[in-house]
Automatic annotation (TrEMBL), chains A, B:
Residues 49-154 form the PurM-like N-terminal domain. Pfam families: AIRS, AIRS_C. CDD domains: HypE (cd02197). Residues 166-312 form the PurM-like C-terminal domain. InterPro entries: HypE, PurM-like_C_dom, PurM-like_C_sf, PurM-like_N, PurM-like_N_sf. GO terms for biological process: protein maturation. Belongs to the HypE family. This is Hydrogenase expression/formation protein HypE.
C-alpha cells in the first residue's frame, strides 16, 4: 500500500512512480488483467471455430453526475459496450477500459467506480484485460471520462442486423422505456423533481443469447441509448426500407416518466435507456422470444410494441390511443446532454 | 452535404440528426468502417491459425496542443496503439477510435485530425473499424480527447516480453531520444524556446516485424512514451530481475534537446517519445537486428545503448562519459503533463 493520496494529481498521469502506484492499486488490483505487458495476449477457442466472426465496438462515457440511482459511470461503461456486442448476436469476451481523470478527482470515487465495473464485468461473464489512465488539469475534464472497447465472438450461423428486417416482423422491447434518461435528469437536481426513479442500466448479453436461442429467426436488435427508442427505430427502419408502426397503447412507460416528460416538454420515446433493447423477429417466433426474455430479470417487462410494414411514408409511425397516427421522426437538436 | 456548422455544439452529441450528420460526414466518410451496425464484424485468417494469439490494447490521448510539429493528436492516437501492439510482436489489424469533443471545437480541426488518422492507419496497414463520439460542455473538456483500442495477431512461435530478458542481452533503441517531449514543450509556447524540433511520432509496426525477422531471439521490446526511456527500462528490468547498464556516450541525443533539458532542469532520459522503442536481444543477434532496423526510415538511427547484467544493485544504471556510474531511477512526480 503506497498510495496515500486522497485526490488525483497531475503526477498520477506523468508516467512515473505515482502513476504506477495509482494503476497498480486502484485499477489492476481489482481488474487483474493477464500478464504485465501493455497489451493483453488472449486466446479463445470460439474465435477459431470455422465461420465465427469477431465483433469489435467502442464507446466513451461522459455521464453527469458520475453516480446516480441504479448505477455509476463505470456500470454504464461496462453495460454499454456489452450491449453493443450483444445486440449483434456476439458473446462478449474481453473489454478494455481507458480513463481520462480530472486533477482533483477523489481516489475513493475512482475505487467505487472500478468496483462496479469489476462487478458488472463478472455478471456479463467477461474480463477487463487492458487499460490506460491519463490525467488532465482541473477545468479541462469533468471528474472522469471512461472509454471501453469490447471484443466478442459471433458464433457461426448468427447473422443479424437492420438490413435483415422484413415486413411483418414483430417489434419487441425488454421493459419500460426512458428510466435512465429520467433518472439522470432528476439526479442533476437542477429541477424541482423528486422521483423515485432508478436507471435501467443493465448488461443484456444473457438476455440476447436467450432470445436468439428461443427465436433463431430474430432479424435485428439494437440497444436504445442516446436518442432513445425513436432514434434507434428510425435508423433501423431507414436501413431496412420498412415502416415501423408502433402502438401507443402498448408502449411500456412509467407514469412518473410520462409525468416528468409532460412537465418538461420531452418525449419519452427519445429518452435514453441503458438496459433496453429493441428486437425484430418474425411474428410466428414472437411468443417464443417473449417467453425466453421474460424468464430473465432484465427481460421481465418484455412486450410487443408494434410491427413492421412495407415502407409506406415515414420510417416510424405511431398509432395513438385515439386511433390517429403520427410520424415519429429522428431527434432534431439535443434533448439531454451527457446522458451516457 | 448537410453539416453546415463551423463549431461542434451540444446537439452533435445528443443522439439525433445533428450527431448522425457529424459522424457520417466527418468520421465514417473518411474511415469507411465495414457495415452499419454499432459493432464491426471481422474475420482474419491469421487469427484462426493454430497457436496464434490475439493482442488487445488501449490508450487515451489528451496531448496539448492538439497540433504540433510532426503530428497531431490523431497521429499520436494511431501510432500509440499501433506501437503498443507492435512491441509485443503483434501484427496490428483493427482499431477503434472514440472522441470526447469539447463544445466549440472547430469542425475543420476535427477533419484535419481524422485525415491524419486515416493516413497513419493506412501506413500501418490497418483499418479503423468502429468508433464513437461524445460532446461535453465548454470548460468540461479540452478540444478533443481520443481513445483508440487496437487488435492485433501474434503469430505462432512469437512470445516476447520483459520476463524473457536475459543477462547479456544488448539494449537497442531505434533513434534519438526525447524529440517528442521537447517538441511539445516548445510548441506550448510558454517558454522562450524556439527550437527546430519535430516530434518523433511514428508507427513502428513494420520496424518491429523487420527486427523480429532478422533477430528471432529478441526477448522483449517496449515503446518509450510517458516517463521516457528511463521508466520503460526500470519497469522491464524490475520484471526480468536484471540490471540494465547504459553507456552515456552511446545515448543518441540531439544537442538541441540536451540544451533545452539543461535550461529547464529536465533529464532527456525521462522525456516522452512517440516513435521510439527499446529492444532487448541476445548479443550475437544485435548486429542483425540493427541492420534490419537501419534499413527502414523509422530505424535509421538505431543503435546499441547498453546491455543487461545479472541484477547487481539498481535495475538501471548509467556509465557516464567520465567513467563514473549513476542510478537511473523511476520518474518520481511529474515531468511534463499531457505529453500524449
Amino acid at each position: 500500500m503506497t498510495l496515500r493520496d486522497i485526490h488525483v494529481t497531475m503526477a498520477h498521469g506523468g508516467g512515473g512512480k505515482a502513476m504506477r502506484d495509482l494503476i497498480d492499486e486502484v485499477f489492476t488490483a481489482v481488474f487483474q488483467p493477464p500478464g504485465s505487458e501493455d497489451q493483453a495476449r488472449l486466446t479463445n477457442d470460439a474465435l477459431s471455430e470455422p465461420g465465427a466472426r469477431l465483433a469489435f465496438t467502442t464507446d466513451s462515457f461522459v455521464v453527469t453526475p458520475l453516480e446516480f440511482p441504479g448505477g455509476d459511470i463505470g456500470k454504464l461503461a461496462i453495460c454499454g459496450t456489452v450491449n453493443d456486442l450483444a445486440v449483434g448476436g456476439a458473446r462478449p469476451l474481453w473489454l478494455s477500459a481507458a480513463f481520462v481523470i480530472e486533477e482533483g478527482c477523489e481516489i475513493a470515487l475512482l475505487r467505487r467506480i472500478v468496483a462496479t465495473m469489476a462487478e458488472e464485468a463478472a455478471k456479463a461473464g467477461l474480463r477487463i484485460v487492458t487499460g490506460d489512465t491519463k490525467v488532465v488539469e482541473r477545468g479541462k475534464g469533468d471528474g472522469v471520462f471512461i472509454t471501453t472497447a469490447g471484443i466478442g465472438v459471433i458464433p457461426p450461423g448468427i447473422d443479424i442486423g437492420a438490413a435483415k428486417i422484413r415486413p411483418g416482423d414483430a417489434v419487441i422491447v425488454n421493459g419500460v422505456l426512458g428510466d435512465h434518461g429520467a433518472t439522470i435528469l432528476a439526479a442533476r437536481g437542477d429541477l424541482a423533481l423528486s422521483a423515485d426513479l432508478v436507471s435501467d442500466c443493465a448488461g443484456l448479453g444473457h438476455l440476447m443469447q436467450a432470445a436468439l436461442a428461443a427465436a433463431p429467426g430474430i432479424s435485428a436488435a439494437r440497444d436504445c441509448t442516446r436518442g432513445g427508442l425513436a432514434s434507434a427505430l428510425n435508423e433501423m427502419a431507414a436501413e431496412a426500407n420498412v415502416t415501423v408502426e408502433l402502438e401507443e397503447a402498448r408502449l411500456p412507460l412509467r407514469p412518473e416518466v410520462v409525468g416528468m416528460c409532460e412537465i418538461l416538454g420531452l418525449d419519452p420515446l427519445y429518452l435514453a435507456n441503458e438496459g433496453r433493447l429493441v428486437l425484430f423477429c418474425p411474428a410466428d417466433q414472437a411468443d417464443a422470444a417473449l417467453a425466453a426474455m421474460r424468464a430473465l430479470p432484465e427481460g421481465a417487462g418484455a412486450t410487443i410494441i408494434g410491427h413492421t410494414l412495407e415502407r409506406c411514408g415515414a420510417p416510424v409511425t405511431l398509432r395513438t390511443a385515439f386511433g390517429g397516427a403520427r410520424i415519429v421522426d429522428m431527434l432534431i437538436g439535443e434533448q439531454l446532454p451527457r446522458i451516457c
